[in-house]
Amino acid sequence: xxxxxxxxxxxxxxxxxxxxxxxxxxxxxxxxxxxxxxxxxxxxxxxxxxxxxxxxxxxxxxxxxxxxxxxxxxxxxxxxxxxxxxxxxxxxxxxxxxxxxxxxxxxxxxxxxxxxxxxxxxxxxxxxxxxxxxxxxxxxxxxxxxxxxxxxxxxxxxxxxxxxxxxxxxxxxxxxxxxxxxxxxxxxxxxxxxxxxxxxxxxxxxxxxxxxxxxxxxxxxxxxxxxxxxxxxxxxxxxxxxxxxxxxxxxxxxxxxxxxxxxxxxxxxxxxxxxxxxxxxxxxxxxxxxxxxxxxxx
Length: 298
Known about the structure:
This protein is α/β, with parallel strands linked by helices. The chain has two domains: about 35-95; about 105-295, Vaccinia Virus protein VP39 (Rossmann fold, 3-Layer(aba) Sandwich), CATH 3.40.50. It has twelve helices and ten strands. A seven-stranded mixed β-sheet has the order 6-2-1-7-8-10-9. The radius of gyration is 22 Å and the shape is globular. It is an enzyme of class 2 (transferase).
């Protein structure tokens, strides 16, 4: 790098760059190669593009189109054929993985103070005490391990007396591998106090690894919510900020599947920008509408 003075771009240069980006987006909107590209992606990756809202899907694809300086969807399709490794970058762009421990802390406070204690109370008199939780769209596992922390806080010395299984599913295999390792940077743990970090993580240089007790009760696997066979018999299902990217009909189908996957009295938790649709809105009973918590009564 040179040692000369750094020159700031003037307004004219910034406007030219902005106009260029706008023109690129407008050209892509009219590009007839979009449908052909979608068919290619589905055929070569198994990622069914037709399930997603087109505006969202187009925005995610455009991230890679611009990043590779492709002038059109046809040019980007040619790039995919010439460089199959680009499919990995594309799938990473299509699967939005933004997460952290105790994301939306107010939701986790309700889970800790009300939801888990309710489950524990209902199982206290049983010979076999079990708790099954599904983190659907688990990204790199932060949500699943957050739930493990809450269970340990509440159960304390009784933690090992329960059959606890937390299943995290996603379609992003890279994120799932990270979840299995359970190693996170400081930013992922920004919602945790020092005591929680010390109790449930092992410091490894600049990173933190979750304790083995939590790895023993968690399972991470690839699972397509729409096309794969439904997983059943859960006490809590958490699926936050996943369904919002799907078309309305797919959202309704998923919500009914989640209803069937829950046991009686099970809790269903969705993202704050999401709502129950169709039959699901009458099947689930609202438990805390502010935090989007619902319960299955029958």
